[in-house]
């Protein structure tokens, strides 16, 4: 297994190019199941989760031809509709194939994804919505067995909770359904917006894109033609590197970024003392010498993203005063706290709220990554901790960050990837 060895750096300097969004790429790859012909996707990030989903599609019989920053996916050769446990267990977002496979083939077996480090991750809302659309769903021996004896029919769906992949799954199922499906309380994340925009440009009329109420006019089983597209920039990767600039007090410029997707993150960093120069697809952070304490509550987009909570918690250890960080979406997304405490951070956990007393000088030590975003928080801490920090189990990091150590090394970080 690999680990990252990090030593504190003076200021970082230079440009970091932002890759395509992992959480946009995953539904967009699943969406190719709805296509009549091959689909060309560019600006795909080079991360494990994308490779895993493409492997799943290949296991079903699809053809995936890779090129420098993308893939040509042809799902016309799919001859299997069972997504097996061995793949699904490594990436719960595999559930995103459920809606499209069911819509196209009328039957599907997908292994229950199970929970993950940050929480239970139920999919009850996905299944309930598909049943409302006419699917028959049984859970047998750890698998979701779904069939649509009479095809999927459009209907009115109201999600009890806002679910990102749940919204994506139902939008894709509704794309081939008979009639109109409305989704109330839909997720408005940019990743869901891009999925809707591409479907809307491919003959599936979707109204209300970007709002909490979507109306999808299905093609009644007619496969669609999807033109080549580029994945939107990864707003969470971008936010992570902005935190790297803030925590090391470095002026960094991010390129190929979408500032519009980072409103809540930029606003919180401004509250903590940073300022920004923002152009069409670049952001330069001008960090403050003193970092101010902050109050953060994670919510659905466009509010502050839960996927940035761990990174801001690491930053808050360097803020003067008491920061309060409340995690409202997941039941167990504070596992980075114990590792930061081992580095000397003064953090108190009380249920879903972390209280961070800063500023503390962190000390480097061996720490263990526990989930994707916790890993990046530990890297941020390592950039400013005294001494050497070794971040172990970085397979978590490799699931969602494209070339993190080389991107940081290119702006002056003392970071290297080694073998245990
Ligand atoms: C997506 O997960 C992201 N993953 C997550 O990013 C992100 O943290 C999350 O949305 C919230 O923004 C992908 O897009 C691949 P949800 P998802 O369904 O769709 C509850 C990362 O770090 N819920 O929006 O699985 C659920 O328990 C990852 O890149 C139900 O109760 O999240 C949670 O409390 C981590 N029943 C809340 O909704 C359901 O059927 C939000 O979950 C579905 C969800």
List the helices and strands and how they pair.
Blueprint: E1 2-7, E2 13-17, H1 22-31, E3 39-42, H2 48-59, E4 63-67, E5 70-74, E6 82-83, H3 85-88, H4 98-105, E7 107-111, H5 124-132, E8 136-140, E9 143-147, E10 156-158, H6 164-175, E11 180-184, H7 190-200, E12 206-207, E13 213-217, E14 229-230, H8 235-247, E15 251-255, H9 263-271, E16 275-278, E17 282-286, E18 295-297, H10 309-316, E19 321-326, H11 335-342, E20 346-350, E21 353-358, E22 366-368, H12 372-384, E23 389-392, H13 395-398, H14 404-409, E24 414-419
Parallel strand pairs: 2-15, 3-14, 6-7, 10-11, 18-19, 22-23
Antiparallel strand pairs: 1-23, 1-24, 3-5, 4-5, 7-9, 8-9, 11-13, 12-13, 15-17, 16-17, 19-21, 20-21
Bound molecules: ligand EPZ.
The site of ligand EPZ has 23 residues, from helix 1, helix 5, helix 6 and helix 12.
Can you offer a commentary on this structure?
The N and C termini lie close together (6 Å). By secondary structure, the protein is α/β, with parallel strands linked by helices. The protein has helices spanning 22-31, 48-59, 85-88, 98-105, 124-132, 164-175, 190-200, 235-247, 263-271, 309-316, 335-342, 372-384, 395-398, 404-409; strands at 2-7, 13-17, 39-42, 63-67, 70-74, 82-83, 107-111, 136-140, 143-147, 156-158, 180-184, 206-207, 213-217, 229-230, 251-255, 275-278, 282-286, 295-297, 321-326, 346-350, 353-358, 366-368, 389-392, 414-419. The longest helix has 13 residues, at 235-247. The strands form 6 sheets. A 4-stranded mixed β-sheet has the order 22-23-1-24. It has a 4-stranded mixed β-sheet with strand order 2-15-17-16, covered by helices on one side. Helix 5 (124-132) runs parallel beside helix 6.
């Amino acid at each position: 297994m690999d680990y990252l060895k990090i030593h504190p750096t003076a200021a970082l300097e230079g440009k970091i190019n932002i890759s395509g969004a992992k959480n946009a790429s995953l539904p967009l790859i699943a969406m190719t199941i709805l296509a009549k012909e091959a689909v060309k996707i560019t600006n795909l990030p080079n991360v494990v989760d994308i490779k895993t989903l493409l492997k799943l599609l290949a296991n079903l019989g699809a053809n995936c031809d890779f090129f420098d920053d993308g893939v040509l996916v042809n799902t016309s050769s799919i001859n299997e509709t069972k997504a097996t446990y061995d793949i699904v267990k490594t990436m719960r977002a595999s559930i995103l194939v459920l809606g499209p496979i069911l819509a196209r083939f009328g039957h599907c077996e997908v292994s229950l994804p199970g929970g993950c480090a940050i929480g239970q991750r139920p999919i009850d809302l996905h299944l309930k919505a598909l049943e409302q659309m006419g699917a028959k769903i049984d859970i047998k021996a750890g698998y979701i067995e779904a069939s649509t004896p009479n095809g999927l029919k459009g209907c009115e769906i109201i999600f009890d909770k806002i679910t990102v992949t749940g919204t994506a799954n139902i939008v894709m199922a509704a794309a081939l359904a008979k009639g109109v499906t409305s989704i109330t309380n839909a997720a408005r994340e940019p990743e869901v917006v891009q999925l809707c925009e591409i479907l809307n440009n491919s003959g599936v009329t979707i109204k209300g894109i970007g709002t909490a109420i979507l109306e999808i006019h299905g093609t009644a089983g007619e496969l669609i033609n999807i033109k080549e597209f580029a994945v939107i920039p990864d707003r969470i990767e971008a936010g992570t590197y902005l935190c790297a600039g803030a925590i090391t007090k470095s002026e960094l410029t991010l390129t190929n970024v979408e500032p519009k997707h980072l409103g809540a993150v930029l606003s919180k960093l401004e509250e903590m003392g940073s300022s920004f120069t923002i152009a069409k697809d670049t952001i330069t952070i001008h960090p403050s010498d003193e970092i101010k304490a902050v109050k953060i509550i994670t919510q659905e987009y466009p509010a502050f993203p839960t996927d940035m909570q761990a990174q801001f918690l690491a930053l808050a250890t360097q803020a003067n005063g008491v920061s309060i960080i409340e995690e409202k979406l997941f039941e167990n997304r504070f596992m980075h706290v114990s590792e930061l405490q081992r580095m000397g951070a003064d953090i108190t956990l009380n249920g879903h709220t972390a209280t961070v007393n800063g500023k503390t000088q962190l000390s480097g030590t061996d720490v263990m990554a526990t989930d994707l975003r916790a890993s990046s928080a530990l890297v941020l801490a390592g950039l400013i901790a005294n001494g050497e920090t070794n971040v172990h189990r970085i397979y978590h990091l490799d699931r969602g960050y494209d070339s993190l150590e080389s991107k940081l090394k290119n702006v002056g970080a003392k970071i290297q990837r080694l073998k245990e």
